[in-house]
Write a structure and sequence with these properties.
Elements (H helix, E strand, L loop, with lengths): L2 H12 L20 H6 L28 E7 L4 H11 L3 H17 L8 E4 L4 H7 L3 H13 L8 E3 L11 H8 L3 E3 L9 E9 L3 H12 L4 E10 L3
Parallel strand pairs: 1-6, 2-5, 5-6
Antiparallel strand pairs: 3-4
Helix pairs in contact: 3-4, 4-6
Length: about 240
């Protein structure tokens, strides 16, 4: 054991690093999420299914044409995924989005998705919300995916023009009304003819992603796909 490793072990005894999913102490070599949680996370496997068999894709049928509808994890209340997303969204742990983006991107690349996207675009926050939080949680996920898929990403391709209320307690109709006409493309030339992957943290009804996809298609995108860290089952 060298001095650097011994010092790191000593520091971890005083200031133990914990898993951001289960809050158990991380072991040597583990980063942000422990090996047990990585194995036990509820993966969707949607990227391995044909579109007609993908239950998530069905939420958008007849609403907006999407090439791929992807989500890495199943959102289960009071579970590991909810805790991870809480750490990402409210506790400043942007590493969560980056790590999950890299993991998911590696799986997508292994399934042949690496050449499917010309640009990755995170769902934007309104400038007021961005100033309050200090970061956009979707950006870190986009960054991780872009790294694994060797694709460019842009935090400025889309802009949110209105500050909307939280979607949490709204039904599907209210969610759509809340986000309709609040997104715009900042530069059509950067979108026209491109295969765009729009990403966000959680998909529930899909109203926000639907609104983003519609705006991008109207701006001339060749096709639009979506990917989220997690998706919730609808009652």
């Amino acid at each position: 054991m060298n001095i650097q490793t011994a010092f790191a072990d000593f520091v971890s005894l005083i200031f133990p690093r914990v898993c951001l999913a289960c809050e158990e102490a991380l072991r040597r070599g583990e980063q942000h999420i422990c090996t047990n949680c990585r194995v036990e996370l509820p993966y969707t496997g949607y990227h391995t299914l044909a579109p007609a068999q993908n239950p998530l894709a069905r939420r958008f049928w007849g609403k907006v044409p999407l090439r791929y509808t992807l989500s890495y994890l199943k959102f289960l209340r009071r579970g590991r995924v909810q805790h991870l997303l809480h750490q990402l969204k409210y506790k400043g742990q942007q590493e969560v989005g980056q790590v999950l983006g890299q993991w998911y991107g590696a799986e997508l690349a292994a399934q042949g998705f690496a050449a499917e996207f010309d640009l990755i675009v995170p769902v934007p926050l309104h400038p007021r919300k961005l100033a309050q939080r200090g970061y956009n949680q979707a950006d870190s996920f986009a960054e991780g995916l872009a790294s694994a898929l060797s694709a460019p990403w842009s935090a400025h391709a889309l802009r949110r023009t209105a500050h909307t209320k939280s979607q949490t307690q709204k039904n599907r109709v209210e969610r759509w009304q809340n986000v309709a006409n609040v997104f715009e493309v900042t530069e059509s030339s950067a979108i026209a003819g491109k295969r765009i992957l729009v990403v966000d943290d959680v998909l529930t009804t899909g109203a926000t992603l639907e609104a983003c996809a519609a705006v991008l298609l109207a701006a001339g995108a060749q096709e639009v796909s979506i990917a989220t860290i997690a998706s919730a089952e609808l009652a």
